[in-house]
Amino acid sequence: MVALSDPFRSKPDAGMGRTWRILRRSGLSFLPYLAINFALPRIAGRLRRSPRSGIRKMPLGLLCAQLSIPVSVADDMNSEAFRTVLRASGADLLVIFHCDQILHPETLAILPRGGVNVHAGLLPDHRGPVPTIHALLDQPARFGVTIHRVVPRIDAGAILAQTALELPAGTSALLAALLLHEAAVPMLAEVLDLLATGNQPEWNPEPSVYCGFPTRSQLKRLAGLGNKAWDRRDLRRAWSTPI
Prior knowledge:
Elements: E1 2-5, H1 15-26, H2 31-47, H3 60-66, E2 71-74, H4 80-89, E3 94-97, H5 105-108, E4 115-119, H6 131-137, E5 143-149, E6 159-165, H7 173-197, H8 216-224, H9 232-239
Parallel strand pairs: 1-2, 3-4
Antiparallel strand pairs: 4-5, 5-6
Helix pairs in contact: 2-9, 6-7
């Protein structure tokens, strides 16, 4: 089963309420980043009912339908309604890519093998929702991807696999996240194979400080370093990659 978090959900932790809380912290200049990251791919998926040119431009729901994979769009992944869907799926393990909902222990307990998350950062550093922005604030910038177990504390579970990557100068935070998630795919395949056999090593470093959405001063420093949270190419990529 593929479960999609609804970015337009009406819960207090989402939708316009959450957006305004982030903008009060980060400033209005951060709005394009939020739109590109969360809203535009979903809007493109709703407007595009057929593939334009291959799998990469096909809405995810349509692709799953062609592959006979059930899709669930979740307003609340911790609701009893979603937990019922999760139980019925028969899934052993939950794999999380770029999800904006925090799963409760009761939800994770439904899966016999729990959950693993793909995090576009080098844990234990850069915990939180925008690790590539904080990676660009480091001098020098430090990029990498981590696969870790999901626990109630955000990005604090045991690390299963990790690798550092060198990205081209001028890479925006949004493009960096895309490249890092793509780099995680073969890592994830190996981790899943090892988990199935019980041979997956793991380690538990002490979690570092939580890095939330950037403040106005952090974004100003990011620009002063010659780095960008987003650029126009990210806008085009978001619109041409529907969900």
